[in-house]
From TrEMBL:
Name assigned to this protein: Clarin 2
Broad class of where this protein is predominantly found: membrane
One record GO biological process: sensory perception of sound
UniProt keywords, alphabetically: Membrane, Transmembrane, Transmembrane helix
Species this chain originates from: Cyanistes caeruleus (Eurasian blue tit)
Length: 232
């Protein structure tokens, strides 16, 4: 492949790696990975609320990896509150799994920056070692994307298998018990999915840069030199 096009592909790959880094940082800092509707079951049972009256007992909840908030509806109007996952709430959750999600994302941030650096290196010169060349860039992108996938999968497992939303909704609730009516993965979750997808795009760009196209040579016309040409 022509050097100019190859450098352009690696420059584009470096840009994608940097965008992936930004996406992960934004996702980790935003408290809206999950939103849902919560029913104050204790309050609804006390008054034997029927379907039209249940709306007075349905609140909302949202949370991310570090903080969140909820609106409690127990028949007396909505009460807003905010909470932080660390240091106290995490003890009531699956601590190991939650910490692993954060670690996976931190490692993905590191490898995204490494991928960014090595893609720039490939764009400005041809490295002499395989780990610095296209094979190395593929390795760093694969690792970064793989750790993002592990983080996303672990978060889904925490929500679906370990009932993360219900545990958070009932944290320090001594009187009322809340049940989950609805759960939705929000923008920050899908931002992480987009980050993993961007590394897959990088792998495709690097693979394209390794294709060797045949060089197009222009056929030169043969010039017949005669004795008269030499004389003149």
């Amino acid at each position: 492949m022509p050097g100019c096009l190859k450098k352009t592909l690696f420059a584009l790959a470096s840009l994608v790696s940097f965008v992936s880094f930004i996406l992960i940082v934004v996702a980790m800092g935003t408290p809206k990975w999950m939103t849902g509707k919560i029913l104050c079951k204790t309050g609804a049972d006390l008054v034997n609320a029927t379907d039209p009256e249940l709306i007075k007992f349905i609140g909302e909840i949202y949370y991310g990896l570090f903080r969140g908030g909820k609106i409690r509806q127990c028949g007396l109007g909505g009460r807003r509150s905010k909470f932080t996952i660390f240091p106290h709430m995490v003890k009531k959750l699956n601590t190991g799994l939650h910490v692993m999600i954060i670690i996976f994302l931190c490692v993905a941030i590191f490898f995204s920056l490494v991928s960014f650096g090595f893609c720039i290196l490939n764009a400005i010169k041809v490295p002499y070692r395989a780990i610095n060349g296209p094979a190395g860039a593929c390795l760093w992108n694969f690792l970064a994307g793989g750790f993002v996938v592990l983080a996303v999968t672990s978060f889904m497992a925490a929500v679906k298998l370990h009932h993360l939303t219900e545990r958070i909704a009932n944290f320090q609730e001594n009187i009322f018990r809340f049940v989950i009516l609805e759960e939705r993965f929000e923008d920050c979750f899908w931002i992480c999915v987009a980050s993993a997808t961007s590394h897959a795009v990088n792998l495709l760009l690097i693979a394209i840069s390794g294709i060797h196209f045949p060089k197009i040579k222009t056929k030169t016309e043969e010039v017949n030199v005669t004795a008269e040409d030499i004389m003149y």
